[in-house]
Automatic annotation (TrEMBL):
Alphabetized UniProt keyword annotations: Oxidoreductase
Alphabetized Gene3D superfamilies for the sequence: D-Amino Acid Oxidase, subunit A, domain 2, FAD/NAD(P)-binding domain
Gene Ontology MF terms in the entry: oxidoreductase activity
PANTHER family membership: FAD-DEPENDENT OXIDOREDUCTASE DOMAIN-CONTAINING PROTEIN 1, SARCOSINE DEHYDROGENASE-RELATED
Name this polypeptide is given: FAD-binding oxidoreductase
TM helices/strands, residue ranges: none
């Protein structure tokens, strides 16, 4: 039941010998950047994907889209992406299942409510339509929530969810029509540099001479960076999502609901629910689904949403978070390797930020001012005694 579709995209049978840009990773970030670069006038673009387009982490998320963050840079990316999601069907002719059901963050301690109130104020200052709500109002928004367990909640009605696979489909199909070359089932083996600058990429099909590589390899990005001599602090962590059986009566439409303390989350899916919890995992590349997290989920549900503690789970899937030390993305160009760009480490919110990231990286490539300052996402923040921000509105 993971979100996958046939992309109906014919990939290249022959690898070009040269390219202006080689994008490593054919997930939603990579195809968004490819499309935005193509639209900006760059014509010789190659996207290298070791499996099928959109088959990595882009096939596995819950699909939440929002601007409800605590960090101003994340808010800006969320706002821009929401604008792009809202016109996506008209622009690309693809129904992405975008539904503005809202986001509801539950607050069960004074500390959590204070943190959410600060985030809401920042969001409001930046034009996001969010607010703090009472426990009773939270219960009206989501009847599954245990009102007595709450001290408050934050609600952002313009947020919601969409289908990642359909977004990958829209971007990749349009990019291919515009001349972008997609090489699926192709593995990057090495990245060559000359005099401190990118000069070539060698794949399982051969060499591509290029002055620019953009790493969008998600949880696998550290290895790609190492090939070019760039340290990308990205750690893979397995996350699991379950889906429930269809109930005897239709479920109400509810916001995407998250409890920051227990890290439980759930929202509608067809006639059931998608649900999960940020189950503690050791870093790994395992994407095998299992049920050991259910005990922890049911314990959290008994606190936040008691009816879910007895919900039958029919199955689910596992995907990978690409975590950074501060749970914020890495977006920029390497200081010591000219032409090596990166857009990775999104720590669970890559899909929802992908449209804006495509625009931001394209502007960086052209050396022009963008809709926001990308510098807070530079890897330099970990080595230059910069103030490290930690996003709090994530699980």
């Amino acid at each position: 039941m993971a979100d996958t579709v046939s992309l109906e995209l014919t990939t290249a049978s022959h690898q070009p010998r040269a390219a202006d840009v080689v994008i490593v990773g054919g997930g939603v970030i990579g195809v968004s950047i490819a499309w935005h670069l193509m639209e900006s006038g760059v014509r010789n673009i190659v996207v290298v994907e070791r499996s099928d387009l959109g088959s990595g982490s882009s096939a596995k998320p819950l699909g939440g889209v929002r601007a409800n963050f605590s960090d101003p840079s994340n808010i800006a990316l969320g706002q821009r992406s929401l604008q792009k999601f809202s016109v996506f069907p008209e622009k690309f002719g693809v129904d992405i299942g975008f539904r503005r059901v809202g986001y509801l963050f539950l607050g069960r301690t004074e500390e959590a409510c204070e943190s959410m109130a600060e985030a809401v104020q920042l969001q409001n200052d930046m034009g996001v339509r969010s607010s703090m709500v009472t426990p009773e109002e939270a219960g009206q928004l989501n009847p599954l929530v245990h009102v007595q367990a709450l001290l408050g909640a934050s609600y952002s009605p313009d947020d919601g969810y969409a289908r990642p696979s359909q977004v990958v489909h829209g971007y990749s199909k349009s990019a291919a029509q515009g001349g972008v070359t997609f090489l699926d089932r192709t593995q990057v083996l090495s990245i060559d540099t000359t005099a401190g600058a990118v000069s070539a990429v060698t794949t399982s099909r051969g060499e591509i001479r290029t002055p620019t590589v953009i790493c969008c390899a998600g949880a696998w990005s550290a290895g790609i960076g190492e090939m070019a001599g760039v340290e990308l602090p990205v750690t893979p962590v397995r996350r699991l999502i379950g889906f429930s059986a269809e109930g005897p009566t239709p479920l109400p439409t509810i916001p995407f609901t998250l409890d920051l303390q227990t890290t439980l989350y759930f929202h509608n899916s067809r006639d059931g629910l998608l649900l999960g919890i940020s189950h503690d995992q050791e870093p790994c590349f395992c994407r095998e689904f299992s049920y050991e997290w259910m005990e922890e989920f049911r314990a959290a549900a008994r606190i936040c949403a008691p009816t879910l503690s007895k919900t039958e789970i029919l199955g689910g899937w596992a995907g990978l978070y690409e975590n950074t030390p501060d749970r914020n993305a890495l977006i920029g160009e390497a200081a010591d390797v000219s032409g090596f760009f990166y857009a990775t480490g999104f720590s669970g919110h890559g899909f929802l930020q992908a449209p804006a990231v495509g625009e931001l990286v394209t502007d960086m490539y052209h050396g022009r001012q963008s809709f926001m300052d990308p510098s807070p996402f530079s890897i330099d923040r970990f080595t230059q005694n910069s103030s490290v921000r930690r996003e709090t509105n994530i699980i």
